[in-house]
Amino acid sequence: MRSRTVLCIRKIGPSEEETLDNTNCLTHRPIEKESCNNQSCPPQWVALDWSECTPKCGPGFKHRIVLCKSSDLLKTFPAAQCQEESKPPVRIRCSLGRCPPPRWVTGDWGQCSAQCGLGQQMRTVQCLSYTGQASSECSETLRPPSMQQCESKCDSAPISNTEECKDVNKVAYCPLVLKFKFCSRAYFRQMCCKTCQGH
């Protein structure tokens, strides 16, 4: 709105006038106020709230939506209708503290390689970051073993006849079994029965 002063005056001389009561003026009284600047204000940028910082640890970013809106905020315009140089930032840096260090993650032990007696079993050992990505920053001195010795039970059926007690032909290490005193183990005693007999 804009306003002005409206007075009822009467000239009483070439350069002199007096102010009268409004009722003394018989003509239509001009308006004192009127609306102005009726054109719409230019669109403006409106920024919504920031998102949470991502990722959850370490350096990251916050994001937000910035819209080009009418001055009464009721209409949304294409971004090109707002001034690009005055646009608020849509991304800022943030941090929620340091991330946990990478660590060794082991899988389950696999089956024993030997169906009877001593063997080996394996498992996966991986260095993973807190997000599950492969990493090379784990300490090798803390690496868990990926292989271990295992032993499967052997059938220890008693030998009833001395003629049945013999070394299995395909086994060539029976003298070593005797030398290293493995005859006490059921698997070697069965495979090298003749060699182990009496020991």
UniProtKB/TrEMBL annotation:
Keywords: Repeat, Secreted, Signal. It is found in: Secreted. Residues 161-199 form the PLAC domain. One of its GO terms (biological process) is proteolysis. Signal peptide: none annotated. One of its GO terms (molecular function) is metalloendopeptidase activity. One of its GO terms (cellular component) is extracellular matrix. It holds the Pfam family PLAC. PROSITE patterns: PLAC, TSP1. It comes from the Eukaryota. This is PLAC domain-containing protein. It comes from Strigops habroptila (Kakapo). The lineage of its organism: Eukaryota, Metazoa, Chordata, Craniata, Vertebrata. The gene is ADAMTS6.
